Amino acid sequence: MTEPVAPPVCYRHQDRETWIRCQRCDRPICPDCMKSAAVGFQCPNCVKEGARATRSGKLPYGGMRVANPTLVTSVLIGLNIAVWLAITADGGNGSAIASKLAIVPNWTARVLHGDSNAQLVDGVAHGAWWQVLTSTFTHVEAFHIVLNMVALYMFGPPLEQILGRLRFVVLYLVAGITGSAAVMLFSNEHGMTVGASGAIFGLLGAMGVVAFKTGGDVRGLMTLLAINLVITFTVPMISWQGHVGGLVGGALVAAGFVYAPRKGRNVVQFAVAGLVLAVALGLTTIRAHDLGQEPYPGDLVPSAQSQ
What we know:
By secondary structure, the protein is mostly helical.
């Protein structure tokens, strides 16, 4: 004859027998500990744990989950289009706005809209430091902004959804600035460079890092990157400096974001991004100082390039 099985007791109240179990942890709970859930009942600890997870809404790499993960990308596209419209209204290729916003390492001379004489345009070496950032939002030709904005629309939302808004903004801006740093170091010092491609190449590099970390389609991304690099180095008037600089910067920042340990993750992530930014700005400063020592050599009207 078998002995009757004693009923389990509530794990929170050892003096109370119960046959009800928590739907999450499967521990026995008494009527006082039963909390209604979508299916069945849960214990108070599991309810608190679920509420904490819901409130945090954290993404895999520490960013906050939001209802609209395309907002930042849309704002960036809007800013680029707004600047392009202003430049177009101001004369396009001869726009004084474009001359102010495009990055020029040293100085250049341009014939501006409505003026028959070439005018001197100061670059970063002569105090126009804003060009390091504003050039990444500047486009002159319609086909140029269309290509870049289509690429931003493709690559931006997935990364914004994975990283969260703040980290995505940091990634985009730092990649754009590392692209500008490469322009300062390796481009014609009297050339004028415009375009968001440095930042967009940074997004492409970041997607490659994320794909490698998560076991995604790395080969597809590498093929796409290889095609774009071939175009960069074979098509005239494209700034390979901005593209490569943005690619390297974006990949480094993304590596800091996705490989940071959970403990102290935020500090590590933004320290890496800050370090990449500091190196880019430091190299830009050194180059600007060196170029600033040279006197204006006279009339020079170099060709402009885009990125």
